[in-house]
From TrEMBL:
Keywords on record: Hydrolase
Top-level taxon: Bacteria
Pfam families: Abhydrolase_1
UniProt protein name: Alpha/beta hydrolase
All copies of domain AB hydrolase-1, residue ranges: 106-158
One MF term in the entry's GO annotations: hydrolase activity
InterPro entries in UniProt: AB_hydrolase_1, AB_hydrolase_fold
Length: 260
């Protein structure tokens, strides 16, 4: 670890209590949805293609309802994951997600966009690696796939303590390897649960990072997050391009050069 990364790691550790305390604003972010209706519905309308939404750790379909309602109102065929509470990557969870993806794809006979919140985003990324022919694009919200402390380290510790099998298969490469489909990672520097650096990947022809101001628990209901999700989903299939910060969007969404 060089001096820069050591300094950054120290800063993340030192500010962790403050960032965690800021998670209390999640309720206000949800309440702001009502005042943000004009902004939210200025987003481009959907083309009716299917969208599968996956919840965070300890979340369920109820926790993603505001996001799914918004996307449905824009014209997308939005589906919940239908696997109850997300209790972590136990054995069989990814297979269950893939079966759900196949169901949604078969029902609409169109490629499916995957939107995953936190741990749900890891499932979405791995599903896209496993079955890219079924996936249109992947959008993640505060998903920890990069950084020095990988999620699989925590899973190994859990396995050692409980004996339960945890983790995602690695036959398609490490977790920080991007799926072979357009991928957008939405993250917040003031995320009180997932360090923002863990949600930033290497940008490329089909990958991007978009910063918003939000708590981790509010990422699936923050107006800034919801607008980005809608903007990304509205792109024509096979014609993906990075998010454009023009006009008011240039004020609301910071330039990606801040990543460096």
């Amino acid at each position: 670890m060089n001096r820069l990364s050591e300094s950054h790691a120290f800063w993340l550790q030192a500010t962790a209590p403050f960032r965690f305390a800021l998670e209390a604003r999640a309720g206000l972010e949800f309440a702001s949805l009502f005042a943000s209706q004009p902004f939210l519905y200025s987003a481009p309308k959907g083309d009716g293609h299917p969208v599968l939404v996956l919840p965070r750790l300890l979340g369920c379909d109820l926790s993603t309802q505001p996001l799914r309602y918004y996307l449905s109102s824009l014209g997308y065929a939005t589906s919940p994951w239908e696997q109850g509470v997300n209790l972590g990557p136990r054995g069989g969870v990814l297979n269950g997600c893939l079966k759900r993806l196949e169901q949604v794809h078969a029902a609409h006979d169109r490629k499916v966009s995957l939107v995953g919140w936190s741990l749900g985003g890891l499932y979405a990324r791995e599903m896209a690696k496993e079955a890219p022919e079924l996936v249109r694009q992947v959008i993640t919200l505060g998903t920890p796939f990069a950084g020095e402390h990988k999620p699989d380290e925590i899973w190994r510790m859990y396995e050692a303590a409980t004996g339960d099998t945890m983790g995602l298969p690695e036959q398609h490469g490490p977790l920080d390897e991007a799926p072979p489909v357009p991928t957008t990672s939405i993250y917040s520097r003031s995320d009180g649960i997932v360090p923002w650096t863990a949600s930033v990947g290497r940008e490329g022809p089909q990958t991007e990072n978009v910063e918003v101001e939000s708590s981790h628990l509010g990422l699936a209901s923050s107006p800034l997050s919801l607008y980005i999700v809608a903007d990304r989903l509205a792109q024509p299939e096979d014609s993906w391009h990075p998010f454009e910060r023009r006009g008011i969007k240039g004020w609301l969404y910071r330039s990606p050069v801040r990543i460096s």
